[in-house]
Design goal:
Blueprint lengths: L1 H16 L9 H5 L15 H4 L14 E3 L9 E6 L4 E8 L3 H9 L7 E2 L6 E4 L5 E6 L2 E8 L4 H4 L7 H19 L1
Antiparallel strand pairs: 1-2, 2-3, 3-7, 4-5, 5-6, 6-7
Length: 181
């Protein structure tokens, strides 16, 4: 039963976070280095409106991206998506939601996490650096990339992997934490 639940919980977590939540730089990178900023005004609780700007993603996306207003399961989350369906989702949890989500994120059944220094008070990265979970004060920040199974999608993401990519994702959490401290 536990082995059946692990993939379900992992996919639920990814869907919840989206992926603020990327691979080889290609011809797409050469042809489009711009990031388009879609108006998301009015959603003041959303970290993507309050703390993040399109320029914050330029060291992660190498192709043009757009961003959605929110994720249906978390009004403080948003997903940036490229034309080739590479996605980066940023999710923020606060207050009573922090501990249950942190417990689920760090559950070994949901994949091994590697400690990540320099992000929040405590942070962990997924193997390959395609996801970061960080805690600071009363906030939990989750950033992840999806589309890694598609070569086309990964062409829209930086070639960085492992700790280097995790540090770039963690920098988004640090920006949010700094603005909310």
């Amino acid at each position: 039963m536990r082995t059946m639940l692990a993939p379900i919980l992992a996919s639920t977590l990814v869907a919840t976070m989206g992926a603020c939540s990327k691979s080889p730089e290609s011809a797409a990178a050469a042809s489009s280095q711009s990031v388009r900023n879609i108006d998301m005004s009015g959603d003041v609780a959303n970290a993507c409106v309050k703390e993040l700007k399109a320029s914050d993603l330029r060291n992660i996306f190498v192709a043009q991206v757009s961003k959605t207003k929110t994720e249906p399961t978390n009004p403080e989350a948003c997903t940036f998506t490229s034309a080739n369906d590479a996605s980066l989702t940023v999710g923020l949890r606060a207050g009573e939601e922090v501990q249950p989500f942190l417990k689920m994120d760090l559950d070994p059944a949901n994949g091994r996490k590697i400690p990540l220094a320099g992000v929040g008070e405590s942070a962990w990265q997924m193997p390959g650096g395609t996801g970061v979970v960080a805690v600071k004060g009363n906030y939990l920040c989750e950033v992840s990339i999806t589309g890694t199974e598609s070569t086309r999608a990964m062409n829209d993401i930086t070639r960085s992997r492992g700790a280097e990519l995790a540090e770039k994702l963690g920098a988004l959490c640090n920006r949010i934490f700094a603005a909310r401290s």
